[in-house]
Amino acid sequence: MPLRIADLLARTDLALSPGYDVPPPLRDRAIEAATVSDLLRPGKWLQGGELLMTIGLLLPDDVDGCREYVRDVAGGGAACLALGLGHDLRYQEAPRPLIDAAREAGLPLLTVPDEVPFIAVTKAVFAARAEERRAALHRSFATQRRLTAAAVGGGLPTVLREWTAATGVGAAVLDPLGRPLATGAGPGDDAPPPDAARDLIDRVATQGLRTSATSAADGRHLEVQPLGARRLRGLLLLTGRPDGAARAVVPGLVSLLSLELERRHLRDEPERRRRSALLSEILADDGPTAERADALLASAGLTAGRVRGIAVEAPGGPDEAARAAAAQDLAADLALALPGGLVRVLGGVVEAVAGEECDVREVLGRFAPGRPAGIGPATVPVSARVSLRQATGLLGVSRATGEPAEARGSGTSRLLLDLGDRPTLLGYADTVLGPLDLADHGAELVATLTAWLETGGAWDATSRRLGVHRHTVRNRLDKAMDLTGRRLDDPDDRFDLWLATRIRRGTAP
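The line above is the sequence of PucR family transcriptional regulator; the predicted structure tokens follow.
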């Protein structure tokens, strides 16, 4: 309990008196320290919360001067002003200009009688502050013991409930993606607005164990602390501002919750192995039937009708053991984040299967930032190994682009073209289509060839797209083949022409 002005007035041994009728809200001000100064401008030497004592040696006699003095004291953050009275001192009672100035400024004014030295008031203030700190330390120890007992006899919810009961501060433990794992319900503790806490959660989750974050949203104090030993295992969200005693316990709370999450991680290892075995069965060359594949996914809690294969290149290390440990850590993170948790390690690659609706890029950005990764196309569960094979094939592409590569059906050719050097690609297109560029009505010939290739060689469809007769289409293509020396019925020539027109279309303004 902080020392208040009212507590000082209640001390009969100090015999302090209010200089005017100080209202109750001002009497409840906390006193942080006591100091003595007879400077005319003491404000710049104050730190805030002081009981400033003076004998008024340089105090102005006029109203304006007293107002200026009181403004300086209040501006320095003083909680209260005390004037020493005495027969041998300047004042035997508080002067009216000072009283009026203090009342106008809302600064409590006390008087110290002649028989009470300033040092007695100073000792009383610092003794009360020391007792306050001792009581806060006692509360901290008591709270820490309660939390430790809760951690021994219960889990996350028990620890959080004890914390909230002891401090009045709401708390919740979230997984690294911000999904709730446990909460401690406190009096009037509502879940914080998602938008208010989301920025803090994302900021801490991105930085891992290296940072924490606080903010105030809608008048509510929000704080996020990382949980975990070597890797981020979860997040602690506090909704409320801990007082001094509670603040001292926060590191202990973080340690207990981190220990519990690490225990959970070890306890879940058999389940992760089971799910890895399920994935191996689904991806086997002589894989299960469609019904069996659906059943295997359902047993892991994954009921999506379509799934994607995911391949991530595991982090390197100084030796084989370090690389294996890094791969297992990454696999455990992905097993926690991906619905179903179907993840396995195969060589230096972490493989996984997730439902089509899962935001795979967000998960990879959180747990495997900068790692080469491939994302296969969505397919039925029985064909998951086909999707994973394509994902693995895209690791080289991801390595070149620096971001996850995703197979998107017809978009694959676009991806491959984007990997090429633009001048080289354009030079290739010019080599193939250059004879048409130099011919009369060359643009018409290129446009007709492009339309015919894009419609799959359908004469009528090309005619409709260009708005010309099908014989005109045939005549133009015959001329184009004569100029280029190519044949439409030759697969290699047809591919070269398609690739050249594709390059041209991709770079057209």
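Note on the example: Residues 118-153 form the longest helix (36 residues). The radius of gyration is 38 Å.
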